[in-house]
Records
---
Amino acid sequence: MRGEKINRTMTLAAELGCKITSGALAAGSLLPTEAEIQTRYGVSRTVVREAIRHIAAKGLVTVGPKVGTRVRHNNDWNILDAEVMRWHLMAGERRRFVEALYEMRLINEPEAARLAASRITPEQSDRLADALAAMAVHPRGSEKLIIADLDFHRIILEATGNPILRSLGTMIERSLSISFSLSWRQNPQDETVRQHARVHDAIVQGDGEAASLFMRRLIESAFQDVVAALYNEPAAAAAPPHPFSANGSAAPPPAVSQVAWK
């Protein structure tokens, strides 16, 4: 019974969380009363209270005596919480969140690859090669392939030697696993492995400029694949917002032939 109660609590919390992150329950609006939620979802008062307490702990709502439960502005949300990120991705309108996720990756991961090229240890280099090899042998879209992909990116963040960047991979792991599973379904496996191999080779050869460039191209390609999977939009038409331009547009990256390999 305890397990069933926890499951009902988490199910209700996810339902309310999705409504909030999708905008169906707007900032400043009041949630239905406890009695209304009980009736609508067929759950006990205890389940309702625990579910609301759960989403309040993530900054989504504020609860006040005699004033009800009010949705907070998204500036107050714990946006990097694994469940909050998952609720964004479960929402019907998730394009803006997907764009924000990939924009964040474009800001951080190319520079992380650049740093890793000068800081990676022999042990980390071996693990990076193992992750790349695993991506080539496990079936497309399989759990083991997704784990290998996550490991690849996590090792690069770790190789920067920067504990904050390393923690970044842990914070966004849940959403990345979802986006990786989508992008792997779209892109031919051989091509995706080649994209990762270019990043790997540049890092182990100590070429920070090439590592940064190829990581950027890898993330942009993954964004195109995710958009194609979610919206049936041609991959060529999808481009993540460029983090360093005022209008979201990006200048085309230099051609591969312009990269000086070591």
---
Amino acid sequence: MALILLICLYTQFTATPEPLPVWFIVFVICWNLFFLNFSPILARYILPKREVYFDRQNQTVSFSWSVNNAEKNDHGHSTFPFEDIEAFYCKANHSQVHGVTHAMYIAHKDYENHHGAFSEIRVKDNPQNPNYCKYTWERIVRFMDLTKPLVDSPEIEPFRHLDPVTHEFDKQNNRPEKYWRLMSYKQMKQIEEELDDDIYRFNFDGAITNPKRWANKEITKPWEKWPIDESLNQPDDTPYWKRLMKTLAMQIIAGV
């Protein structure tokens, strides 16, 4: 949109106006559609995958690329015990309008002998506030804790029954099987904003040094804290073609 606007200003509001370069406008629109829709697909299937994954059951961390002096798991990936991995964050200059941000990294504690066991872990928008890096690592540590059930979140809900500890917890507490899946998107967004606000202001350092004063109690029964609001759970009667056109228009005009 910015490129098209600049071209219009340059061609129409000069001493000698020129015809609009229609070919360039069409090129920009086509590039937007390609970049936003097809390039992620190409990257997924063409570029080599670089993934780090945490195995709760086996208490391991695996890297999908080659790492020095590493054992291989059943998938042929470099694997280490979770206790051998540490995390840290630091300031990073990313190409974002809000300037300096914080990035989170994980690495093997003995990186000198396990060169390659290092990766950046994406956090929410690589924010200026380092709390999101701390929160991301806290979620990983919590996920790997076999003494507790899985965190009750939408992306994990369909798989809770596969974890014995979680399955037993849900059974004892009569957890609704499809709690998150029956909730409206609007209510989910409200809950997400509430949690984001808590994370942004949370005193992580204080919670470590003085947990009795600063640490928050974990929300283990979200269905009691946030009952499903049926008033927000109304079906969207907008025709599909209208929603599709709105999405395409937003992509072309604003790139979102």
---
Amino acid sequence: MFQKIKERCEVLSKNFKEINPERKALLEKLATHIQGKINGDIGINLIYVCTHNSRRSHLGQVWSKVAADFYGFNINTFSAGTEATAFNQNAIHALTSAGFEIEKSGGTDNPGYEVFFGDGKSNLCFSKTIDDESLPKENFAAVMTCGDADENCPFIPGCDLRIGTTYFDPKSYDNSVLQDEKYTERSNQIAMECLYVFSLIKK
């Protein structure tokens, strides 16, 4: 894992007290689900879902992969939406600022981005809908990162667990003086909560 990202994980993992009890109870349900997969020697697949699959869901996909690695677990993480748009540049900037190395592939309106968090450690991010062929069709948890997606996806076929860990959308601060600060704030919140989940899991 890249040193800058590792250091951020170390700092965030010492501040779980900032997560309120109600939120912790929700995250613990996800941890219990993951623990069950580990106990049964079953692969772990997490799909983070948001309406446009452009910001919060990608941050969830990336940071959950990092959090698992930080605690010594290997999992598969994905993101999706109720509609496909593109991985937002402000969210990408928040990740590069945190120490990620990101390589863009393709020149379309919805390119792919390989997000590296260490040597040989990466995650492919691009915007897609929940029925995209690249996503698992069974044995996965759907983590809803926004209220709109939770309401507009009343049923997700194949998921073992559906859980709503909604986050405030940093899009509200686009093109403002607080833009970078708010995207970093949301990135750190998602990172901390992902770390909290995996801190509870035993090998």
---
Amino acid sequence: MIVKRVLPLLLAIFLSSCAELTQLAQQTLDMNAPLSQNEIIAGLKEALITGANNSADLLGTVDAYYKDELVKIMLPPEADIIVDNIKKIPGGEDLVEDVLLHINRAAEDAAKEAAPIFVNSIKSMSFSDAMGILNGNENAATKYLYTTTYDQLFQLYQPKIKASVEKDLVGNISTKESWDSLTGKYNKIANSVAGQFAGLKPVDTELEDYLTQKALDGLFLKIAAEEKQIRENPAARVTTLLKRVFGSVDK
């Protein structure tokens, strides 16, 4: 009687173990199976969306630009003379820092809206694009996003940066007005006969364009770091598809 009761139980355990082993074997086989075009494209899209969203979310938080020395946006080198002179007056140093704070806050605000631009670009990725990224160098995906999204991102960031530098500061003078005044006077000298003889070069930097470029430099720097993490650290490949796609490169 006991044998009759135990046998079905042992049989059930055996069959269950066989099913688990079969499933495990199937998973192993699937992981080693050749990648299809659809899997490669889906895996690369997943990686790009993850990296871009993470970077945009990260830089869209308060102080993400301002307190990160790797991406903090500073005034152009040509503005050093403005900064040096303002710092000589009481409260001048705080004023300069306030300008930088507003510029970096504008970039943080823009970053919050960057993710959809990346997603739209990623959706149009071709198989050729995917293979180029998969077999490319450590920042191939970042370069792809840079090429396909930079102009749109520039249009997103620039108005916010522009509004920041046009905000009135002390004496109803904005950062932009101070910049234009300084470079205008300098350029008159640089363009004069004496200035040309002295080898002076006119300054033609558009402040908001320069600052926007620096803001985007920071964004793509973070995306490159995300990409490197996925390529080099298996633990960062959080889905089976990512493990298969990037694991194929590891092999």
